[in-house]
Amino acid sequence: MTATTEASSSAASSSAIGASVIRDYYLAMAVPFVIDLITLLVYAGINRAPYFLPMPLGISAAFLLVGVGTGAYYLIRPVKRFLAGEVDFADIEHSISSLPRRSCAVMAVCYGPMLALRYFARRFEFGFGGLLQDTAWIDSVASFLVGTGFTVLLTFFMVSAYLDGLCEHLFAARGVNLGVFHGKFSRKIAYALLFAAFAAMIQLAADILSYEGARLIKEATIDIVASVSGTVFIYFWISRALTRPIVRLDHGMHLVAKDDYSVRLPVTSDDEMGHAVSRFNKMVEGLSEREYLRDTFGKYVSPSVATAILGNRTGRVADRTDEATLMFTDIEGFTGWSERLPPTEVARVLNAYLAAVVPAIQRHGGVVNSFIGDGLFASFNLPLPLPDHAAAALRAALDIQGTLAQSAAVGKIGLRTRIGINTGPVIGVTIGTENRLNYTLLGDAVNIASRVEQLNKEFGTTILATESTVRAAGAFATCRPLGETDVRGHAGNIVVYSVDPP
Known about the structure:
CATH superfamily of the largest domain: Nucleotide cyclase, GGDEF domain
Radius of gyration: 40 Å
Largest sheet: 8 strands, mixed
Low-confidence stretches: none
Number of domains: 2
CATH class of the largest domain: Alpha Beta
CATH topology of the largest domain: Alpha-Beta Plaits
Strand content: 5-15%
Distance between the termini: 63 Å
Structural class: alpha+beta
Number of strands: 8
Helix content: 55-70%
Mean pLDDT: 81
Shape: rod-shaped
């Protein structure tokens, strides 16, 4: 299939979906008249007067086609223009959010007069559109109010259910969401409950005050059946309009609880529920951004340190003094071979080297504090607590050498890394300015670890550890003593050990 054909097919599909969206609104606005048709059929059947139907049906169709049809056309026109790309979503957002209320107004303006004509035509001696029998004033007024109220309320919740689907479609297809919230969820529920509670009571009370005997039984039966049927309709559409956003929000929260921060929900109403969904989307965006920061930050510091920093509202790791094991690494002969290779090759090998060294340190609970040229500085037990940190550092050093020995990229160049390890008291502090912070370790133990790494040249070793580390790790049996040596910047000699593979 060519690109032109695919584009044409996609456009046709989008056009068909858009037409379906518009058609569904007209169908929703037509449902009250379908119910009215059923009511008229039942009324004519009870009275055994099929000849009665043509006139009220014609009047009902006229109100539907002319009044409601015209109003619905203008109400849905902004959506049609948006789907056609003629206007921006911001230009029609208020029109969409108020669609249920405006649809109610159109229905009240059109349906109310039609019912008034039906209930009061005989009283004012109109010769068309009225009922077969005279009705008492109280019953006529009650029937008019309840009938109009039912139709308006049903329209509101049907169009609200339609709006839910419309907003879901616009969100999925165009990525737009409602952002205006003027409605009241509590008000919707209050109107629905009040109508359901009092509509039948009003009708029955009017029947009791208006009729007696067989007529009372007949009118009460009709009103009871109508009330039950109306309640079923109202309940269905209320349930559909109000519970779908709640179910959708619950599902979204379930996904977030499973650490899925890609979920976004359509905002399908302008009330508290819509506002809650909008805040949910913002919350998930914040969580997603936080996860992105943690992942990105974790590329520069240990992911566990990144988590600790992001979990602290000050943006700092707590300053403290503790015993820690420090490790310095360096590549033997780095200057010589780096001058013989192009910069891209130097970068490739260095990245391969670090890709082997850094995970090995992290596997054993260490934290890479900084990269220093062709080497790095890592710590165990600061800033993150680590039991048996000296032994962990020795294991990490052996792991590094083993991993590098198996690395094809590193082996091709013939790199060897030197590692120095020391254990002692260290001060861990966050230093810097408001705009730039750095966590660093200070103390004589850090200086000794750095110097011990350089002593590998003198002893011809690859891993050197001080006696303090070997003692803390309980590794005298597996480490080879090399004797005392002086360390520049440190008063007195130290004993160093070669850490050899088992």
